[in-house]
Design goal:
By secondary structure, this protein is an all-alpha fold. The protein has 2 domains: 225 residues, no CATH class; 213 residues, no CATH class. It contains 22 helices and no strands. It is globular. The protein starts with a helix and ends with a helix.
Length: 487
């Protein structure tokens, strides 16, 4: 007998959590070690080229993976058609990047970027070989295989990068890290995955998948462009070191988001897609997703913002102190990420990628205004504009939730008020404790984090919030039950 959807979902969350806690934590540890060994300029150089790779990757994928994941069943024609398209697109885009590399280097006034782009760009083709395998595993809610693949790839690529950094390779240790990560990931997906392309191209599959995916592509192009436009502008108008500081601040906020929220997001999209025809269950699912993700993300971002200085100084060294105010501002923006994503995912589950695209266009106009205004006040004006735009865009993202699920922004805010209130209280407590000589170094951070976590969970426990009750009476018992079955 096949597992129920709830059992498969819980198993997926366990493995996805191991993936994020394993892969993301290992990746973060590698980043910290490299940050101590390398200069902010090295990180800035790689950040400049990653703008173009991530942007190109959107065109290679072209929304096909999202279209595949929301399918209830995926035919062989669907998979092979997607594989062929991804591969052809990757070769074409690598050719474009190869030819444009000298012009990109001239734009940033960094000659070394030409060679870096031409070497790292090969990863576009390498990644194209694993897009379908990855999508099939997500659609099947198989996160165990993904966890094994990513953990092994992160470990090998990170180990090589650290070794090269110790040997004085500088920026090339970062290049090796990203290139090996993509290569190892693709190889392991082919070794552990069961699917192999049949090399059949179906026009019907292409039209159907691209009909949905094209809207995702257009929205993703806008999103990637405006996500990276900050790095593009910083890299052009400010020193490479400034971009390095901004990138490092982003690394810390992304660590929290990747580890604590994208675990839930990656599992719930394919699960909720199977409930797309039942609006009441879909609303209940999204309501629970918002509450649980807020339960984790909001206090984590609050603690990261309050303890930004001791965290950076302790983990990556005093040379990264200029990144402290950037990190604190980005934490304010990071508080909205899960909120916005929950609302946007709802549209994709319902198949309304057209409305998702419409919202992206509106939001990008808002971001463009914030950039133009913020840039007049230097680097911090630019980042403050990013923060303000994220909150305005949150309101925009929630617009259709009221129409389709009767889950308005006001109701969403009421659902997470206890979490917000308790996070503010804990943040205030840590603000007064952070300068006390409780301990030194990493032990000081561990002690402050433990105090904050204990106070936060204690407040939820005493208040008997929905989140705490759900964790105590549903998640914990079912997780133990699942682990017992595996044992």
């Amino acid at each position: 007998m096949s597992k129920s959807l709830s059992e498969r979902s819980l198993s997926a969350i366990v493995w996805a959590s191991l993936d994020k806690l394993g892969g993301s934590v290992m990746s973060f540890v590698v980043t910290i070690i490299l940050a101590r060994l390398l200069s902010p300029e090295d990180f800035g150089l790689v950040a400049m080229v990653m703008i173009f790779f991530e942007f190109s990757a959107v065109f290679v994928e072209s929304g096909f993976s999202t279209a595949l994941i929301r399918e209830k069943t995926i035919s062989e024609a669907d998979k092979s058609t997607t594989f062929i398209f991804n591969l052809i697109a990757s070769v074409v885009l690598y050719g474009v990047l190869f030819a444009c590399a000298p012009y990109i280097a001239a734009f940033f006034e960094q000659p070394l970027l030409t060679l870096i782009i031409r070497i790292l760009g090969i990863s576009l083709i390498v990644n194209a070989f694993s897009i379908v395998q990855h999508s099939v595993l997500i659609q099947q809610i198989d996160f165990k295989t993904q966890t094994i693949v990513r953990s092994a790839a992160v470990l090998v690529s990170g180990g090589v990068a650290v070794f090269l950094a110790f040997r004085g390779w500088g920026v090339w240790s970062l290049v090796a890290r990203y290139a090996l990560l993509d290569l190892m990931t693709t190889i392991l997906f082919w070794v552990l995955g069961r699917w192999r392309p049949s090399m059949q191209f179906s026009r019907e599959s292409f039209r159907r998948l691209f009909g949905f995916g094209s809207k995702i592509l257009a929205a993703a192009v806008l999103d990637k462009f405006f996500v990276h436009i900050y790095k593009l502008i910083i890299g052009k108008f400010f020193a490479a070191a400034t971009l390095g500081f901004y990138t490092q601040a982003n690394n810390f906020t992304n660590m929290v988001i990747n580890t604590l929220f994208r675990t839930v997001q990656s599992v719930t999209y394919p699960v909720l897609a199977k409930l797309q025809d039942d609006r009441e269950k879909l609303k209940a699912g999204y309501r629970k997703m918002l509450q649980l993700s807020s339960f984790i993300i909001i206090p984590a971002m609050t603690v990261l913002g309050v303890l930004a200085e001791p965290i950076l100084v302790t983990l990556v060294g005093e040379k990264w102190l200029p990144a402290v105010p950037m990190l604190q501002l980005l934490c304010l923006s990071g508080l909205t990420y899960h909120f916005s994503t929950v609302n946007l995912n709802m549209l994709l589950v319902l198949g309304r990628s057209d409305l998702s695209l419409k919202l992206e266009v509106i939001k990008k106009v808002n971001i463009a205004i914030a950039i133009v205004v913020g840039l007049q006040f230097g680097i911090y004006g630019l980042i403050i504009g990013e923060v303000v735009a994220s909150y305005v865009n949150l309101v925009i993202n929630a617009f259709y939730s009221k129409k389709f699920l009767r889950y308005a922004l006001g109701e969403q805010v009421r659902d997470i008020l206890p979490t917000v209130a308790f996070s503010v209280l804990v943040g205030g407590l840590l603000f007064f404790l952070k300068d006390l000589p409780l301990a030194s170094g990493v032990l000081h951070l561990v002690l402050l984090s433990a105090i904050g976590a204990g106070a936060y969970l204690g407040l939820h426990f005493v208040a008997k919030t929905e989140e705490m009750q759900f964790i105590r009476h549903t998640i914990i018992p079912k997780t133990w039950q699942l682990m017992g079955k595996k044992a």
